[in-house]
Amino acid sequence: MAPKKTKWNARSHITDLIIGLLEQGVGPWVCPWTRHNRGYDRAANVLDGSLPFNPCTGKGRSYNGLNPWLLAGASIVNGWTDPRFCTYKQLTKKKWKIKEDQPRKAGGPGPSDVYFWHIVNEERDPKTGEITRGKFFTVKMYRVWNYQQLEGPEPWAVPEAPEPLKPLGPVEDGVDWEEAAARDLYALAFKVCEAWDSEVPCSHGGDRAFYVPSADRIQMPTLDQFKSKAKANDTTVVEGIRYYLATRFHEMVHSTGHPSREKRDFSGRFGNEAYAFEELIAEIGAAILMAAAGVVSTGEVREDHASYIQSWIKVLKGDKQAIFTADSQAKKGVKRILDHAEKAGALPKPTKGGSTKPKGKARKKRSKAKAKAA
């Protein structure tokens, strides 16, 4: 008797894709294309290469959820530096063509997978017609092609860089101009950190970064230690500051799990699944915060990443829902941090996106007009 075929499952498929990327050292912190995002707007779809996006969807739409990780990972694996993607239907409508060597049957990478949450109002028994399940969310998969796989689109025009980095104010003698410029560049990120400091105090000293749930405080090495380490590794002061911010964002996301906030489980010990899961939440959240604040990651695997990757893989292999739960928890933590920063006046208020759908009485009037016309 032939073995029963396992039913294809979208969530398992996405999890397997993420596991494959982690096995290659590609995590949520990757960004393979040049970007110059120094601004911030939670409601805006910033189409400057900060995130992979689809220019063919309305006014353009940045991918969210785990999709930036999936698409950035595919880009790194395949050497793409263009953040634009579109579906087969969209590229044929534009009269573009897929390059001959790009389909899988030709030995190419083929399209990349993305997903969207789809609302199903109800599920019925096909025989009786009875409702077996109420309203629920399900995953709907799409396949998209990177613009570098196509013939027809104009090459990606890298957004113009901001004005040359110069400190905003006068700089005293002896101050490192590169550091002063980097502080200016990442002023937004430092404001987010300072705002959260009023919620969860952050102390500096020692050579380790960690969050203490019992005391509800963050401990960080000094910024000078990160800069010194960068110089020792033959990298720039700017890279040291990026490393500092990424690490501090990581600990800030941890702190959102406190019992007074998101009530996450901190009972795990290093090496077990509960600990690894919390670390995955913190790393996804840190990557989201870095993108929001315009802190460009080099995408390199840091020492702390390397020690967690295998444990993350183990967690994801054991639970195909885990990556979605981690992503959801990370977003809740990030929202709490950014909400706090906005209330503290550290960030501009989000621009309200205009809706094309009529509301209230206007919607009813339009519905009646349609009915009469019919």
Brief summary:
This protein has 374 residues and is of the alpha+beta class. The protein is 41% helix and 12% strand. Helix 5 (187-197) runs parallel beside helix 7 and helix 6 (223-232) packs across helix 7 (237-255).
Your description of this structure?
The protein has 374 residues and is an alpha+beta fold. It is built from eleven helices and twelve strands. The protein has helices at residues 10-23, 67-78, 88-93, 177-185, 187-197, 223-232, 237-255, 273-293, 303-318, 322-343, 360-373, and strands at 53-54, 61-62, 85-87, 97-98, 112-120, 123-124, 131-133, 136-146, 150-151, 202-204, 210-212, 217-220. The strands form five sheets. A three-stranded antiparallel beta sheet has the order 3-8-5. α5 (187-197) crosses α10, α7 (237-255) packs across α10 and α8 packs across α10.
What's the quaternary structure here?
A: single chain
Helicity level: 40-55%
Main β-sheet: number of strands, strand sense, barrel status? 3 strands, antiparallel
Class based on secondary structure composition and strand pairing: alpha+beta
Count every beta strand, where a strand is a DSSP E run of 2 or more residues.
12
What is the helix tally? Answer: 11
Provide tags for this entry.
374 residues; alpha+beta; three-stranded antiparallel beta sheet; three-stranded mixed beta sheet; 11 helices; 41% helix; disordered C terminus
